[in-house]
Amino acid sequence: MQMLETKNLGFWYQNPADTLFKDVNLKFEAGKMYAILGKSGSGKTTFLSLISGLDSAKEGEILYNDTSLAKIGLTKFRKHNLAIVFQAYNLFTYMSAYQNVDSALEISGVKKDNQREFITESLKSVGITEDLQHKKVSQLSGGQQQRVAIVRAMVTGADIIVADEPTGNLDEETGREIINLFEKIAHEQKKIVILVTHDLDIAKRSDVTYELRDKVFHKRVKEVTQA
Ligand SMILES: Nc1ncnc2c1ncn2[C@@H]1O[C@H](COP(=O)(O)OP(=O)(O)OP(=O)(O)O)[C@@H](O)[C@H]1O
User: How far is CA 31 from CA 91, 189, 197, 205, in A?
Assistant: First the structure.
């Protein structure tokens, strides 16, 4: 089973006395949706950038399937194993939804036999109709753009999907639908899904919540309601 793990992870920006977190030992397993919760400025995005291989740990290490990211190589890890979804979607706005997904495949070097059909069906599966697929992304709603961003992340075949405040720009209802999608990706496609959020409702829906408070991550496991 795919697994991402931090071992005694510690980080600070300039001054080691201003440590953001220390001795962090967390596990992220395939098939589960995780929420990283915490107040503004607590270090959530920083933590995400470390597990995404965008920055290096100051102390400790991060392991992907028992091999450290440093050994795998951060660039290789980002290219093959992980995809990021941002609050502001980060799509090519002058391209269509279809072209955005197509370019994601090209950038990650993924080739599909029936590429056209694969892209069309992937977008349809999240509710982006063929009509919408060929419109410029700038003409789509925020929720539709975030769906395109999720498909972009999915098609690369990455096992880890991380998202930083993915519902931050969306209304409540649309945000819930986006979280439904992430949940499906975790539970049905057996990916590791990690969402950074300060939304308690998202945290409640996640299988596991790690709340960063006073430089320490506190773990909460979702209560399963009995039928
Ligand atoms: N590049 C940087 N250099 C120095 N300090 C930084 C840098 N990036 C962030 N910080 C500081 O590190 C702390 C944590 O920032 P981070 O963005 O990780 O918090 P966050 O929990 O994601 O906050 P928010 O919910 O507001 O996005 C903050 O005090 C921030 O000012």
Answer: 26, 7, 19, 14
Please, what is the Cα angle at 164 between 195 and 100, to 5 degrees? 110
* Ligand 1, CB within 6 Å, residue ranges: 13, 20, 38, 40-46, 198
Kindly tell me the sign of the dihedral angle through the C-alpha atoms of 74, 212, 65, 59: positive
Centre of ligand 1 to C-alpha 136, Å, is: 33
SS3 content of the chain, % helix, strand, coil (to 5): 40, 25, 35
9, 13, 15: residue to mutate for ligand 1 pocket, most atoms within 8 A of CB: 13
Q: How far is the CA of 47 from the centre of ligand 1 (A)?
A: 10
Q: What is the pLDDT along the chain (227 residues), one digit of tens a residue?
A: 899 999 999 999 999 999 999 999 999 999 999 999 999 999 999 999 999 999 999 999 999 999 999 999 999 999 889 999 988 888 999 999 999 999 999 988 888 889 999 999 999 999 999 999 999 999 999 999 999 999 999 998 899 999 999 998 888 999 999 999 999 999 999 999 999 998 888 999 999 999 999 999 999 998 776 55
Residue nearest to atom 6 of ligand 1 (CA): 13
Query: How many angstroms does the Cα of residue 16 sit away from the middle of ligand 1?
Result: 15
CA distance 40 to 90: 22
**Closest to 27 in 3D by CA, of 2, 55, 60:** 2
> Contact, 101 vs 155, CB < 8 A?
yes
Helix/strand/coil for 96 = strand
